[in-house]
């Protein structure tokens, strides 16, 4: 079995496997010179040397040539400082040519023989004239590579919705396919502003917990389905994936939560929590009603209250009877003591109208009562 190590290059988090020759002692974070399809490149060891089956290696296994020297590292740093000036000059040439492209970054090869510009565009661009113009300016081989929106975000970087640096720009080594089904499975809002990243595509983090949500949701029935639960027929109203519980609506209106084991009958099911609360509330209301309800009164108290009420009504009627007798109202009879006089209701005058004086018909105020024998 060959001994291989993982090497990553600048602007790429993916580790590529290279064969380690005998007598070459490599450690993590060592800078090495490797042989690639583009020639010799400078890379960093991100996976320690180990034995690996030949069938597990993807593609052709090329060797690690040597450890990078201090002079080679200084030369690579000098070329890296020149890349910003090269990108600025390339953008000026693109603007002068009127090409619909946005230059994102530039990168020199290890020996400075190649200069690669990365650009983004929504359409195919004919940049042959631009390549010849840049080759005359930089006196080196020019290569232009078109990027997708995700690769553009990886090179540019930024801060995501979570407040942390973008995953693709820090540690994510490949872009896994993301679909809208993942957002639906995790009960996320389907608004593009909520589930899209800086690149305008669906968030890569939707793929992180999708398998867990799918596995937990598979233990319970779908929301809205009528099922036969241990407590009888019920409707599934909600499935909490994080709590790993399902909420059921029983026929009597009670809502019950239970785990997957309790739903299958593998674990005992306690009394529903909402039902216990309703019973406690009913007992509390009954206790309050029994303490606030007035008790039976004794007979002397009732007679005393009836006598006082009767006396009050007689005292109120006697002055009224005297006033009517003094006025000499014809046809008015003396009313027996203890009976109340019913007076007709006065009409309410309309608001805003003039108050009219009306002569009172005193004869209508009298109440015919039986004459005393």
How helix-rich are the residues, as a percent range? 25-40%
* Overall geometry: elongated
Strand fraction: 15-25%
Average pLDDT works out at 79
CATH topology grouping of the domain at 75-147: GMP Synthetase, Chain A, domain 3
CATH level-four homologous superfamily name of the domain at 75-147: K homology (KH) domain
Concise structural overview:
It is built from 10 helices and 12 strands. It has helices at residues 70-97, 128-138, 149-156, 167-170, 180-185, 192-195, 210-217, 260-264, 273-292, 299-327; strands spanning 3-8, 16-19, 31-36, 39-51, 62-67, 102-108, 114-120, 141-147, 226-229, 232-240, 245-250, 255-259.
List the helices and strands and how they pair.
Elements: E1 3-8, E2 16-19, E3 31-36, E4 39-51, E5 62-67, H1 70-97, E6 102-108, E7 114-120, H2 128-138, E8 141-147, H3 149-156, H4 167-170, H5 180-185, H6 192-195, H7 210-217, E9 226-229, E10 232-240, E11 245-250, E12 255-259, H8 260-264, H9 273-292, H10 299-327
Helix pairs in contact: 1-2
